[in-house]
Give the backbone structure.
Amino acid sequence: MGKKMFVLIVILMSISLIGIIAVQLYWIDNAVESKKQQFKNDVQKSLGRVAERINEKEQDLIDRKIEGMIENIGLANAAQIKNYFFQEIDTTTKQTYSLGATYLEENFKLPSEEFLDNDSIILKRISGKKDFFQTKTFTGIDRKSNSEGIRTSFTKRYTNLEKEYNYETFRSLFEKKPIHQRVSNRELNATIKDELNKRNIFLDFKYGVYSVDGLATKLKSGYYTINKKNSYKYPLFFNTEDVPVHFLYVTFPTKNNHILSGISGILLLSLFFIFIIIIAFSSSLYQLIKQKKLSEIKTDFINNMTHEFKTPIATINLAIDSIKNPKIISDTKKVERYVNMIKDENKRMHTQVENVLRISRLEKNQLDISKETIDIHDIIEDALSHVHLLIQDRNGSISKHFEALTSEISGNEFHLTNVVVNMLENAIKYSEGAPKIDVYTESTNKFFIFKIKDEGIGMNKSVQKNVFDKFYREQKGNIHDVKGHGLGLAYVKEIVEKHHGTVFVESEKGKGSIFTVKLPLI
């Protein structure tokens, strides 16, 4: 996959993920706002019913009081009679309609000690009589005009007019009373709670009643302080002109929890799917990058392996061609030298192939690692002897600092020797000039620790993170400064972990590296 195609795929996947998450978040936000609006509507309806019930109760109280007073009423203090007459003539049918009405309006002045600033009130009693006339004119045989008519009369008491006037009179008096005398805290609290419960709102609430000027009244729950931003407002009482004079404010401290609980199931499900999408995208992107990186590393490995094999194969071909030469084949010493050369190059290729196969067997758990009690100091000494000629060829030196008091572990001698050899060869390869290597050992109650320190080229943090990965080798452009396949340290890590140990590196660019291995003691 080309770099441009890879970047394009990553960008498209990222845009898709962002789009999906944005849609989900937009839906969640809409759901929350819808729930808030629904909650607000339910609260407003509840408060509307609270105001209706409070006013209806007050109206019933006024009506009962008026009825009680009228029942015990005496002689009127003043009276007024009003007469009305209406007539309509239909010339077509020669009919005449007449309506006469007489109204008696009696005023009764009654004491009212219970109302402030009023020593008396005026009640009205209205009664009346209505007379209805219907006459029809017709011409007889003698051409004289005659009339006949129908008369209907009835008397009644106009209680509706009485109630309307008397209620307005009492209502204006009630408005002058302190609001806490018109409705009690207990009654208001119970009414609010009942109406909220009818709409499935079972939340703790606080309330307060304020005048139209914003002044607090005695109607409130505890130490309620108005918070217009988070409160729900509804007019509670009106004056005779139907203008609000008091407002009821209600606040819900746990409103947000109630709103979220209503959509918690679908909200959690949506968040869960968002999380799954992010995990899936991250995993896919990680695998994509990992596969791309692995592909590049494997390509690099194949190129290096081809280069490593090319030299010994060319050497072997030259040696064989030389042996075929009639002048050489008769020279026993030269033939023997060329045969040894072929043998060495063949051994070199075999070793490289064996390293690759060893890693493959380790991954498949096909590598037999039998363990026995061994002295790790002896293993290190043996490994040092293996690299002695390499150090000598580079005019380098190795210093030993064996300070471990206990050095017996359960392990495989062959593989642990290879581990130390690989680490030493790595230190030699990445040292500029004459290698200077220090080997340290120490022990704790549970672990044997050995360190291999070099003064080589070192590595940065990003290289340290990948140095134990298979096929990984630090690059400068497309050219490796040191030959190899990136398998040595991967093998080291696998073998150390098979022995239940750990290996890590500390390094600084240009100042060398320290590889540390911890192995459990017997």
